[in-house]
Write a structure and sequence with these properties.
Rossmann fold; 13 strands; 14 helices; binds adenosine-5'-triphosphate; single chain; about 35% helix; six-stranded mixed sheet; alpha/beta; four-stranded antiparallel sheet; CBS-domain
């Protein structure tokens, strides 16, 4: 668990981070969002002591970070940055194996770990192990960056705009993969991003910052339902807020049982989102869908009326259920 309590950071006269308090529970992903220069990266870098905080307390697993040796601390915390930070003259395999080697794992264990992570990140060993960073696409390099951060099996992962430089399709794919990896590995992750959709999609806990301060924090759905002020509301997408909320809400949580009437022709899987349901209704010119399970067997129905009437959806979300 990561706890920041009344933490500030000043550079000379300038305050980059101003009295922030936040807690990231073990195994959860906390996203920091906000306008440029609001202190997101500084917050992240204080957690692995790349920057020392000026005041307040930062506690990792019950111990103040000053009590950890900075070098050992950084080996325990995975760190992924936008520019990947890969060593250009090292092969992919050597880059990924960096921390296990520093941790003095045996050569056999290191190789096994590198190969395991390459598999997890969709990088076939025969194709990529011996390539160099300049021979990789942006998406591939970013996968190597994530694999390298996971290599020492850290409990904590700090990710600073990890997918910021990628095209939207590659970005979405990597977001999907990170969500999948996270559902298996349950790392405690702090994730900095400019992209609110990315934050809404990945975060268990969302922190909105402005001018070094936290202006609101909570679950993505809680913020979408009750933004504190116009700044948070505009960051969350203003008028698009309803659709973003629908994207976080699953069909199965709002379907009704099959009625006596003929089932609707259009079918939607129960684990799709209400946003996808709305899109399907628009595409198929209908206001009712048959909800099906993984075997395409009808298990309920969903009507437009129900979606609209229940616009104040409860807090059930894809990530919480
Ligand atoms: N080493 C430093 N020396 C002086 N000022 C700094 C230093 N690092 C950051 N700052 C200042 O602290 C403030 C917060 O910077 P930070 O990089 O944390 O913001 P950010 O929210 O991550 O921004 P961006 O989204 O643009 O990356 C900025 O005003 C920045 O200029």
């Amino acid at each position: 668990m990561i706890e920041l309590s009344h933490v500030s950071k000043t550079f000379g006269d300038a305050t980059a981070v101003d009295d922030i308090t936040l807690r990231v529970a073990k195994g959860k992903l906390c996203a920091l969002v906000g306008t440029s220069g609001c202190g997101k990266s500084t917050t992240l870098r204080m957690i692995n002591r790349l920057i020392d905080h000026s005041s307040g307390d930062i506690i990792l697993d019950g111990q103040a970070i000053e009590q950890y040796d900075p070098v050992k601390l950084r080996r325990r915390i995975g760190y992924v940055i936008q520019s990947t930070g890969l060593f250009p003259h090292w092969s992919v395999a050597r880059n990924i194996g960096l921390v296990p080697r520093l941790l003095k794992w045996s050569a056999t264990d290191t190789t096994a770990r590198v190969e395991e992570l390459m598999g997890l990140l969709g990088l076939p060993v025969e194709e990529f192990a011996h390539k160099y960073p300049h021979q990789l696409s942006g998406g591939q390099a970013q996968r190597v960056g994530v694999a390298r951060a996971l290599a020492g099996d850290p409990d904590i992962l700090l990710m600073d705009e990890p997918f910021g430089a990628l095209d939207p399709i590659t970005r979405e794919k990597l977001q999907e993969e990170l969500a999948k990896i996270q559902s298996r590995l349950h790392k405690t992750i702090v994730f900095v991003t400019h992209d609110m959709d990315e934050a809404l999609r990945l975060a268990d806990h969302l922190v909105v910052m402005r001018d070094g301060r936290i202006v609101q924090q909570g679950t993505p759905l809680a913020l979408l339902q009750h933004p504190h002020d116009p700044f948070v509301e505009s960051l969350l997408g203003g008028l698009e807020r309803g659709l973003k909320q629908a994207a976080l809400t699953r069909v199965k949580d709002h379907m009704t049982s099959l009625g006596p009437t003929l089932p609707a022709q259009s079918r939607i899987p129960a684990d799709f989102s209400l946003r996808q349901a709305l899109s399907m209704m628009l595409r198929d010119h209908c206001d009712r869908l048959t909800v099906v399970d993984q075997n395409d067997v009808p298990i309920g129905e969903l009507s437009l009326r129900r979606i609209v009437k229940e616009a104040q959806w409860d807090r059930t979300s894809q990530r919480e259920s």
